[in-house]
Amino acid sequence: MNPATDFYRGEVPSSSPHGQVPNPREAPAKITIDINELKDYNRFRVLYTRIAKLGEGGDGAVYAYEDRSTKAVVAVKTAHGDWRAPSDTLMKEASNLQLLGKHDHIVEMLSYSVNFLPRPPAIFLPLCEFGDLYCYKKKLWKQQRKPRTSEVTIWKLLKDMSLALNFIHNHNKQRACYIHHDLKPGNILVTFPAGGDRNRVPVEPVFKLTDFSRMREFPISPDADADKDWHGCGTPEYAPSASEQANVRPSGDIWSLGATLQDFALNIAPTQSRESFIRARRAQGKQCPRYNENSSWHDISWRSLIPTRYRPLNADIAELKTKHDVPVLPPSFENSYRPYSTQLSVWYQALWNPNEVERISAATLVRECVPLIDGYIAIAKSMEHVDQCFDRARKLREQTRRRQAGRPLLPAKRVQARKPPSYEGNEWDSQ
């Protein structure tokens, strides 16, 4: 594996628990699912058949199951292992989803089964046709034939996740709020908007937050220290600084949202590059893996030491490389990249405030940013339409120039001067 591909996002990461999905264009229209058929494993295994593995993560694997008669498809999250002891992690996730209830931008739990085999429980979720952010972006880029994420889509992601986090962080104002604790591209699923064209990948899809196995109550309960999963902050590449992780707040989810937006827009890991990390460690007289020692770089102990890194979205390629620690980008991405708007970069930067107390909250985002996003999307659509017109004009000029350069010059015709007629008009007919 090329170390550069760990920094620049190429293919979908194999660790993504919600990676591949059946072709969304072939997915049947939504059909009402009988919840009772899901709860009892003995009924479920008779009525449903497994058709695809959607992905695999640290907590378990996700499969697509299809109803043999109605062709309805559900996603089923199951635990690793083939022993009968229930998975505490999935039981906790099922309990957390029940606690939260329904929200437009949180993946709904249809039901769960406590007797699912080979290892209970199983959590039943609606199928999100485009998988996670990695899969969705790959399909979108393939459709538009260039590796650039539209600003329209980034605004929509910011809007949907702001609404989801506000629902979690302010779920019960009289008692306590909750922290997702592992927001990242692999935990955001993508589906068609209502009434959307199912023959195209939507630029404005619906984004839904998933994987609530690490959700925690805030303020932290006194017995939280006994919870072995509490310490740390989800996935290291999207977590705030180590000092902030010692006292986790809802603001940690906001930081993770900023890191997710950077990954989604720039298609690079939102962390310090290997080159910079190695230089910093050597300057401090500390050890670090060799640049090409990929197995060490993938180890959680080293991943946890590499800090996340803010990079502006309105900087051009040259500035990103010289000032913001972006060492390697494929030529195809550089040629397609355009800096994003200042408005987007300002709201995005607010997510990265290093002061966790002063960092913008989900409630503020919903109150002050979300109402403006539809207007920002309209402006972004107009600007991208103008850019497309200029791109078409540029391509036409290049094609014309190439045709003219390859066309041989025609020989000049020799023109013979005709003898002018006399003043009286004599000899005119003879010419």
Automatic annotation (TrEMBL):
It is an enzyme of class 2 (transferase). InterPro entries: Atg1-like, Kinase-like_dom_sf, Prot_kinase_dom, Ser/Thr_kinase_AS. It comes from the Eukaryota. Residues 1-27, 400-431 are annotated as: Disordered. Its EC number is 2.7.11.1. It is found in: Preautophagosomal structure membrane. Keywords: ATP-binding, Autophagy, Kinase, Nucleotide-binding, Serine/threonine-protein kinase, Transferase. This is non-specific serine/threonine protein kinase. It comes from Decorospora gaudefroyi. The lineage of its organism: Eukaryota, Fungi, Dikarya, Ascomycota, Pezizomycotina.
